[in-house]
Amino acid sequence: MKNKKLYIILSVAVLSIVMNLVDGVLTPPYAVKSALKLLLFVGVPLVYYLTDPEERKVLKKMLIPDKKGLALSIPLGAGCIAVILGAFFLLRGTVDFSGITKSLTGDSGITAENFVFVALYISFINSFLEEFFFRGFAFVTLKRHVSKKTSYLVSAFFFAFYHVGMTLTWLPFPVFMAELLGLTVGGFIFDRLCEKSETVYPSYIVHMCCNFGINLIGFMLFGII
Predict the structure, then answer these.
(1) How far is CA 162 from the centre of its chain?
(2) Which residues, 6 or more positions from 192, have their beta carbon under 8 angstroms from its beta carbon?
(3) What is the pLDDT of residues 19-43, one digit of tens each?
(4) How far apart are CA 86 and CA 39, in angstroms?
(5) N or C: which end of the chain has fewer CB within 10 A?
(6) 199-222 pLDDT, tens per residue?
(7) Residue spans per domain, the chain
(8) Residues 43-75, buried b or exposed e (16+ Cβ, 10 A)?
């Protein structure tokens, strides 16, 4: 592949736009959306890696866990759960969170009855897909071909932008903007976690813990707990 950095940046930009259209405009059932994301977030990077033996080495390394990175990720992930739940309990008296369940039920067909299965998928599988794509592909791999600053910006910006379509109608606009800022900062932190080890597992652990916290809020909003 001649222009590797162009392929990566365009892929990340286009797929982020596509998923925003899927989430915000087409709104298919959750299973259909998840299958499409799996196809795109795995298939497009694999096309890149399989065309170059050197890039396949990068892929192999990023999928091997790093013990030092994991040791830092576990307490950081626990702290994220505490912050997310703390923010929810602090704001629930002033912010209307009912739009989240209404949007999930109306757009994606997620209900109290199937939320347990959706929560398990989001926590363990969807988190890994996003880390493989936005950290492994858009950061670890991209920074081999562009400056570190550029790889940080591309990965963090599109990670936050990718969430616009799915969360735009969930919360009041000021809270939504704060959420996007938090996702951008989170993207930078995830990149930093992966920078030295060049694996996706440190950020995956923290991302998974963040989703644990969010899903616990979902359980409360759906009246499951």
Answers:
(1) 8
(2) none
(3) 999 998 999 999 999 999 999 999 9
(4) 35
(5) C
(6) 999 999 999 999 999 999 999 999
(7) 4-221
(8) ebbeebbeeeeebeebbeebeeebeebbeebee
CA distance linking residue 208 with residue 158, whole number of Å: 19
Both structure tokens of 117? 């299965």
* CA–CA gap between residue 47 and residue 52 (Å, rounded): 9
What's the burial of 94, exposed, middle or buried (CB within 10 Å: 0-12/13-18/19+)? exposed
Contact between residue 148 and residue 58 where contact means Cβ atoms under 8 Å apart:
no
Length in residues, the chain: 225
DSSP code of residue 123 = I
DSSP string, 57-98: HHHHHHTS--HHHHHHHHHHHHHHHHHHHHHHHHHTTTS--H
Burial degree of 95 (CB within 10 A; 0-12, 13-18, 19+):
middle
Residue of 33, 45, 31, 42 whose CA lies nearest to 1? 45
pLDDT score of 11 more than 80 = yes
Residues 6+ apart with CB under 8 A from 180: 160, 163, 164
Mean pLDDT within 157-178: 91
Cα gap 68→90, rounded to integer Å: 34
Q: Which two tokens stand for residue 134?
A: 């936005």
